[in-house]
Every structure is written in structure tokens, then in C-alpha cells.
């Protein structure tokens, strides 16, 4: 049985709950701040995309769609959740709120399927 989109996003929330485990500009970073792959054992922090991949998400799946469709209200300069993560003004609180909206969208999609 495959992992539900809402479960992937819940894993992302757990992974990024501590602000020290969130980053911008790279999928993941090691303890020295150097970019590494999202699934690297050396990774200590992740951007939203890195957390998505680390949590078992696959580009194009329902969790991915939920993340894109949960765009923050009033943010028009971002085309994707990756853009939103890396936007200069985006804070850790913004990311956690985005994940909460995305999880709700995923739950709605799961209920419809």
C-alpha cells in the first residue's frame, strides 16, 4: 500500500518543525551549510522540496499537487512551492502554515478519490 499524500505532508511537518531543520536555496544542507542531496545521511536541514523528497514524495503525485495548490493567500510572485520556499520574505512560520494548508488539501483530495 502506498503512502497517502496527507501522510507525506505530515512527515514533512515533522521534519521541518524545528526552524534549524529548514533551509532555502538548496534541497538540503549538511551541518556546515553545504548543499547535499535530500536523502543524504549528512543532511541536517531541508527546503520544502527536499523535505518532500526525503518524506517519500514524488514529483507529480497528489502530495506534490497539494503543495502547489496550497499557495499562500496574496502571494502572486511564486509559481511553485519551491519559489515560495526560496522567496526572501518567506519565514519558517510561513512554511509551516503552507504545509498545514497543503495537508488539508491532500485530505480533501483523498476523500474524493
Question: What's the SSE blueprint?
Answer:
Layout: H1 5-16, E1 28-29, E2 35-36, E3 45-46, H2 48-54, H3 62-69, H4 81-86, H5 92-112
Antiparallel strand pairs: 1-2, 1-3
Helix pairs in contact: 1-2, 1-3, 1-5, 3-5
Describe the structure in your own words.
The chain has 113 residues and is mainly alpha-helical. The protein has one domain (5-112). The protein has five helices and three strands; from the N terminus they run H-E-E-E-H-H-H-H. It has helices at 5-16, 48-54, 62-69, 81-86, 92-112; strands spanning 28-29, 35-36, 45-46. The two termini are 15 Å apart.
Domain count: 1
Query: How much helical structure, as a percent, in the residues?
Result: 40-55%
Indicate the mean pLDDT: 93
H and E order? HEEEHHHH
Overall 3D form:
globular
Please list the strands of the largest sheet in the order they lie side by side: 2-1-3
The assigned structural class equals: mainly alpha
| Total count of helical runs of at least 4 residues | 5
- Tell me what portion of residues adopts beta-strand conformation: 5-15%
- Uncertain segments of ≥5 residues (pLDDT<50)? none
Strand segment tally: 3
Amino acid at each position: 500500500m502506498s503512502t497517502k499524500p496527507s501522510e507525506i505532508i505530515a512527515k514533512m511537518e515533522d521534519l521541518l518543525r524545528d526552524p534549524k531543520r529548514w533551509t532555502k536555496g538548496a534541497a538540503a544542507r549538511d551541518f556546515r551549510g553545504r548543499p547535499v542531496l535530500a536523502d543524504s545521511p549528512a543532511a541536517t536541514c531541508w527546503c520544502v522540496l527536499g523535505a518532500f523528497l526525503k518524506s517519500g514524495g514524488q514529483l507529480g503525485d497528489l502530495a506534490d499537487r497539494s503543495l502547489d495548490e496550497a499557495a499562500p493567500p496574496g502571494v502572486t510572485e511564486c509559481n511553485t512551492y519551491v519559489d515560495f520556499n526560496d522567496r526572501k520574505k518567506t519565514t519558517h512560520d510561513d512554511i509551516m502554515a503552507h504545509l498545514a494548508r497543503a495537508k488539508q488539501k491532500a485530505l480533501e483530495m483523498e476523500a474524493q478519490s
